[in-house]
Amino acid sequence: MNIIVTGGAGFIGSAVSKALMDRGDTPIIVDNFNDYYDPKLKRDRISVFLGDYSGKFRLYEGDIRDKAFMDEVFETEKPEKIVHLAAMAGVRYSLERPELYTDVNVMGTLNIFECARKYGTKHLIYASSSSVYGQNAKVPFSESDPVEHPVSVYAATKKATELLADVYAHVYGIKTTGLRFFTVYGPWGRPDMGVFKFVANIVEGKPIDLFNGGDMRRNFTYIDDIVSGTLVTLDADLPPGSVMNIGGDRDEALTDYIAAVEKHSGKKAEARMLPMQQGDVTRTVADISKLRGLGWEPTTRIDDGIAKFVAWYREYYSA
Fold first, then answer.
1. 154, 168, 222, 257: which one is catalytic?
2. Which domains does the chain possess?
3. Which of 119-123, 215-219, 240-244, 281-285 has the lowest mean pLDDT?
4. Is 154 among the residues known to form the active site?
């Protein structure tokens, strides 16, 4: 199948594209290579990470907010399915640039939904986030829990895309599925994420910032598990307007993640204890029973995942 992957030069998007090609599909990668973080990493995901797949994917460089551009892509490629991952990411930066986040994440996503409607897409997977749960006290977070009180602009835009998806599902019958991602880490990751910075700074012998004094808990989810869960969902016969948690199966302390980085880097972390930051939450734990019901299981423990992450970091950055 032809499958459009927006944000296909991103962390998750490039890995999903690779997995699609491995099974014989053709990803139609759409990315604008913006400078939210170093565009060289995005270019290298295409030229290095996906370099052996030359000719098996097609790349369109452009912005999902550009209606004419997206119409041209859909008209040319006529995709059967969409994996929509393009977005402005990052909780804290969204508080500094709320207009940008709303424009890209809401209006850009609206363009994708409109293209899906006009061109008869069979299934549209889109990226939501665990951040929609806000400060919910009940854990683990379930898809049926209330999500009316986001604590960042980023989280609010993700909730807005879920509402838009629900409209397009029920008014136009488009099969939409939102994936609420939980703390993704691994090789070729995003340098703005704390889980990346911990690896980078510990390997480089630089101090790390631990907000809330390091008292945080997460479902750390290795990139390979995110990819396998995304493809299982893409292939599933789900009702229109579905949402699905996708995360690791263990509620783990941030300090355990850091200990694994110390173990595999052979270096001790120098930590700066800082107060809680605006927009962040102390605990995100996923109820993944819905995705498990499709036959998916996360299989990578943080010790194995961090070993691969540290090895990649040292090779890529010659550290």
1. 154
2. 2-183+222-248+285-299 (3.40.50.720)
3. 281-285
4. yes
